[in-house]
Specification:
The protein contains 17 helices and no strands. By secondary structure, the chain is an all-alpha fold. It has one domain: Amino acid/polyamine transporter I. The longest helix is centred in the middle third of the chain and has 46 residues. The N terminus is likely disordered.
């Protein structure tokens, strides 16, 4: 019987994942470059500690409510690909295509940016490596691709281990800041970037929200793996709610710890705030030890991204909206074409230069929030379109919570266009070109 099923669909994903993996991939897929790189620029844009914490708290609430909506979608339509699957089911092929491609491209950009950031941290631990940072970033992605080709089981276990180490390392960082940071003198800190002029409050708030949204992207990661979950109706609510609460607690505490250590003027000049905080407490030598644990944070995020992004184009391929090769799965359950394609595209971005990676990471935020809005709208649309669809979990406060989240997402996108017209312009141009690309995809046998 099993052999017949295998012959019918040799590219079926394997049901191997449970609650532990869901929590780990939420933590690992969210906590990474954002919390390590963004506190300094956020401080430069806002210049006020209570306002900084308020922005982080508001986006934390957005992510928590977003998780509640995503759980309903994930257990109702348990397929790999998350936002793409929901948008296509609710609004049809075109909206699904746009949502899927933007979700995948955004993660490709974030993956390249994350690998580059990890290489910068490696250069802090092992000096004189700056000339080969780009090649280190490429090597990281090649190693990850080789490891993930071994299969879903080993990739899932590695994610659980790295997320556990990541959480331990960040909680240790928080504890050290509060225990040893009271008498730190900051005048000897060498800034890792130059002070920029603080913008007007409205512009500063919009930019800060954009940066925090980038840091929080990943709160929905477990939904990409519902097709591979042993019991999504039971496991997904536990893993997504637990995972996002862990992320929120860590993010708020890390920011409080950094603000406790570093005056706002010093923080505003910092490119790698967590590393600078540790250097302030223990000096260069001791700071390198903790920096090593912070690198694990980035590695866990990269591990999650190179695992979930291929699931998007895998599902698109199954629906005839991407290359047929992307639906190929190896014996270990890993998309055997979609995974290396994702990694190679990220490598091409790294080769194109750091500035390209950073610009595309800004564009990625626009895409990410757009896919969130499509997902929240899908909750409402599917309730009306398919009222009899089995829903083992229903979002509380329906329809108010999805509507509020849609409005917030749209306001953010409008603000992003207002504050960063250059990055937003590229995203808007892509949206204009997306329909001809969709028609071409539908008419060509991929």
């Amino acid at each position: 019987m099993n052999q017949n099923i295998q012959k019918e669909d040799p590219n079926k994903l394997l049901k191997l994942l449970g609650v532990g993996f869901g929590i780990a991939v939420t933590v690992g897929g969210t906590i990474g470059t954002g919390i390590l790189r963004k506190p300094g620029p956020i401080a430069a844009n806002l210049g006020d500690p209570p306002l900084i914490m308020l922005v982080w708290a508001l986006v934390s609430l957005y992510a928590f409510l977003g998780v509640l909506c995503t759980i309903e979608l994930g257990v109702s339509v348990p397929r790999a690909g998350a936002w793409y699957v929901y948008a296509r089911r609710a609004f049809g092929d075109y909206v699904g295509f746009v949502t899927g491609i933007t979700s995948w491209l955004g993660t490709v950009a974030a993956l390249g940016f994350g690998a580059y950031t990890m290489s910068e941290y490696i250069a802090l631990v092992w000096p004189n490596k700056e000339p080969i940072i780009r090649w280190m970033a490429i090597s990281i992605l090649i190693i990850l691709m080789g490891f993930h080709s071994l299969g879903t089981k080993s990739a899932g276990k590695s994610q659980e281990i790295m997320s556990f180490l990541k959480a331990i390392g960040l909680f240790a960082f928080i504890a050290m800041c509060f225990i040893y940071g009271g008498d730190v003198q900051t005048q000897d800190l060498v800034a890792t970037t130059q002070r920029i002029a603080q913008p007007a409050l409205l512009t500063g708030l919009i930019i800060a929200f954009q940066q925090v949204f980038y840091a929080f992207d990943g709160w929905h990661t477990a939904a990409y793996f519902t097709e591979e979950n042993t019991d999504p109706a039971k496991n997904l609510p536990k893993s997504m709610i637990s995972g996002v609460l862990v992320v929120i607690i860590i993010y708020l505490l890390v920011n409080l710890a950094i603000l406790y250590i570093m005056p706002i003027e010093t923080l505003a000049t910092s490119k790698l705030a967590a590393a600078d905080a540790i250097r302030l407490i223990f000096g260069e030598k001791s700071g390198k030890i903790v920096t090593f644990f912070l690198m694990i944070s980035i590695l866990g995020m990269l591990n999650a991204q190179i695992m979930f992004a291929p699931r998007v184009i895998y599902s698109m391929s199954k629906d005839g909206l991407f290359f047929k090769l992307a639906q190929k799965v190896n014996s270990g359950g890993t998309p055997s074409f979609a995974m290396p394609l994702t990694g190679i595209c990220s490598i091409l971005l790294i080769i194109s230069g750091k500035d390209t990676c950073e610009r595309l990471s800004d564009i990625a935020v626009f895409f990410f929030v757009m896919t969130y809005a499509a997902g929240f709208a899908s909750v409402i649309r599917l309730r009306r379109k398919e009222p009899n669809l089995p829903r083992p979990y229903k979002v509380i406060g329906y329809p108010y919570i999805p509507f509020v989240l849609i409005i917030i997402s749209i306001l953010f996108l409008v603000g992003a266009v207002y504050s960063d017209i250059d990055s937003s312009m590229y995203a808007l141009i892509f949206l204009i070109l997306s329909y001809p690309l969709f028609i071409m995809t539908k008419n060509i046998n991929l």
